[in-house]
Amino acid sequence: MTSPALQIGAHAVSPDHYIDGRRVAGTAHFDVHCPIDQRLLGRVAEGDPAHVEAAITAAQRAFPAWSALSAAERLPYLERFAEEIGRRAEALCAVESSDAGVLLSRMQHGVVPRAMLNIRWFARHALALQARTIETEQATHHVRHDPAGVTVIITPWNAPLMLSTWKLGPALAAGNTCILKPPEWAPLTCSLLADAADAAGLPPGVFNLVQGTGATTGAQLVADPRIARISFTGSVPTARRIAQAAGANLVPCSLELGGKSPFIVLEDADLDAAAATAALMYRNAGQVCLAGTRLLVHERVAEDFAQRMRSIVSQLVVGDPRDPATEVGPIIHPRQVERVLGFVERAVAAGARVLWGGQAHDFGAQYVQPTLLDHVRQDDEIVQNEVFGPVLTLQTFASDDEAVALANGTDYGLGGVCYGQTDHAQAMAERVRTGFIWVNSFGIRDLAAPFGGIKRSGIGREGGDWSFEFFCDVKDVVLPR
Ligand code: NAD
After folding, report:
1. Among 46, 184, 256, 327, which one carries the catalytic annotation?
2. Cα(18)–Cα(25) distance, rounded to whole angstroms?
3. Cα–Cα distance measured from residue 403 to residue 410, given in angstroms and rounded to the nearest whole number
4. Is 84 among the catalytic positions?
5. Which keywords has UniProt assigned to this entry (predicted)?
6. Which one of 42, 229, 358, 371 is separated from 56 by 20 to 30 angstroms, measured CA to CA?
7. What is the CA(87)–ligand 1 centre distance, in A?
């Protein structure tokens, strides 16, 4: 028997799992709240060992037929999946604004079109994979990308729809069957994704959704020896647990983790452009893994830069993410608000100066003012740790070498931003140790390009061919001449 739908505004969302092509009600449930006004949105199924078992069994059963299809045969299913996501655009936007607090405007113009593209682009890209050969004097090597098996996908609350489709697209296109475990603080758009998969006619067991908390449902899923791949995006402590479980079974895992990315402003930078981009770091209330949260500014332009940035930040509209005018929304959970403000308090106590913000925002209980702190030292907690809120730091440098040393002086290595005269900025970008870095720009994410971090920011790359290298078993069939 299925549970009654949750009503999110005009939109109905199932609180159930989706296993083997049908909705499965939970035996236990967890609460989901709206970060804007703390309203209870509803209770969602908490996966227990029986649900995990059912999902793995269904995915295993579906694997032989789905993996036997060619990429061309899988394409129409996935094209339909993308279309069905598009058909639910209005609901997806409204629901993710309500449970994750993502800006409605970003959902409409960024996330939902991207979710469709995530499915469609990888399905089309898979077509090219089957024709790779390497010719040598001795042999022809037919390089196959074979489906790996049952894939577990675990995603965080700051971008549930975007990140789930970013992984589902290549995993399904590769011929794997999937089990998605959405974030418990924002699980609802992934339920709509299951509706889309169902309406698209994906065969039962190819896409499964098991709702639940990380420590229980998530941990059970990743510990199962029948799993062939684990793709995880989230925090470093969780990644350590998942890597341990994966290590026990020798299962490849892809880990996309947190960041503390440098945002370098060279003396020869266009300061207006740099300041406008730096202000973007407050979008989604700073809950963005790839945000450049450490502003590193040449000492001769630092004051000028900060003034220009201040005038932009003072105009930012903080408010309800469902209002199209809003530019900075809520923090996901009271626990995160406490965490973010705790970072600021400790930084100030250690000597940091508040250039702006620094306090709770009066729009609501889960709002924090866009904040900039300077007078911070490289080994301060606020410089070394990911805050995941609307809090940036500013440090100055006197030389390129000093900027590079500051940029590279944390355990993270996800992304970066460098503003300056192009050759200069590019040369600096090449010296920064991260998985990617934007020169005089921010946020360009082409699906063909690799994405991922180094050091504590993760292991492995997804995107383009890199996704298929991860989600497939690469095999060389050697034909001698
Ligand atoms: P989190 O690690 O707490 O949770 C992420 C997911 O893991 C959730 O679905 C959770 O239920 C699940 N989980 C928790 N414990 C688990 C366990 N033992 N076994 C299996 N699953 C478990 O992260 P979060 O707080 O939801 O997300 C914020 C973090 O995600 C930040 O550090 C952020 O930087 C990072 N992030 C990284 C990227 C990237 O692409 N590199 C993108 C977005 C967010």
Report:
1. 256
2. 9
3. 13
4. no
5. Oxidoreductase
6. 42
7. 28
Question: Do residues 85 and 92 touch, judged by C-beta distance below 8 A?
Answer: yes
| 3-state SS, residue 48 | coil
Distance between Cα 159 and ligand 1 center (Å): 10
Taking the centre of ligand 1 as the mean of its atom positions, its distance from the CA of residue 439, in whole angstroms, is 28
Distance 451 CA to ligand 1 centre (A): 17
pLDDT (0 to 100) of residue 129: 80
Q: How many whole angstroms from 427 Cα to the centroid of ligand 1?
A: 33
Residue pair 393/378 in contact (Cβ under 8 Å)? The answer is: no
Rounded Cα distance, 286 and 318, in Å: 12
Residues 351-362 have pLDDT tens digits of 999 999 999 999
Binding site membership of 218 for ligand 1 (Cβ less than 6 Å): yes
- Report how far residue 273's alpha carbon sits from residue 438's, in angstroms, rounded to the nearest whole number: 13
Decide whether any atom of ligand 1 lies within 6 Å of the 297 Cβ. no
Instruction: Write the pLDDT tens digit of every residue in 91-149.
Output: 999 999 999 999 999 999 999 999 999 999 999 999 988 778 999 999 999 999 999 99
How far apart, in whole angstroms, are the C-alpha atoms of residue 214 and residue 17?
15
pLDDT tens digits, residue range 201-212?
Answer: 999 999 999 999
**Does residue 47 line the site of ligand 1, with CB under 6 A?**
no
pLDDT higher than threshold 80 for residue 363: yes
Please answer whether residues 99 and 34 qualify as being in contact, where contact means their C-beta atoms are separated by less than 8 angstroms: yes
Instruction: Provide ipTM, 2 decimals.
Output: 0.96
pTM: 0.97
Quickly tell me which residue has 């991260």 as its tokens.
434
Residue whose CB lies within 8 A of the most ligand 1 atoms, among 167, 233, 385, for a mutation test:
233
**Ligand 1 site, residue 242, Cβ cutoff 6 A:** yes
Closest Cα to residue 468, out of 123, 139, 205?
A: 123
241 lines ligand 1 (CB under 6 A): yes
Nearest 5°: CA angle at 177, between 476 and 478?
5
The residue among 390, 396, 317, 383 whose CA lies nearest residue 357 is 390
Token pair recorded at residue 1? 């028997």
Q: Indicate whether residue 234 lines ligand 1 (CB < 6 A).
A: yes
CB of residue 413 inside a 6 A radius of ligand 1:
no
Cα-Cα-Cα-Cα torsion 454, 456, 462, 463, nearest 10 degrees, comes to: -60
Among 154, 290, 387, 414, the mutation site with the greatest number of ligand 1 atoms within 8 A of its Cβ is 154
Q: Do β-strands 28-33 and 40-46 pair in parallel, antiparallel, or remain unpaired?
A: antiparallel
Would you state the pLDDT for residue 267? 98
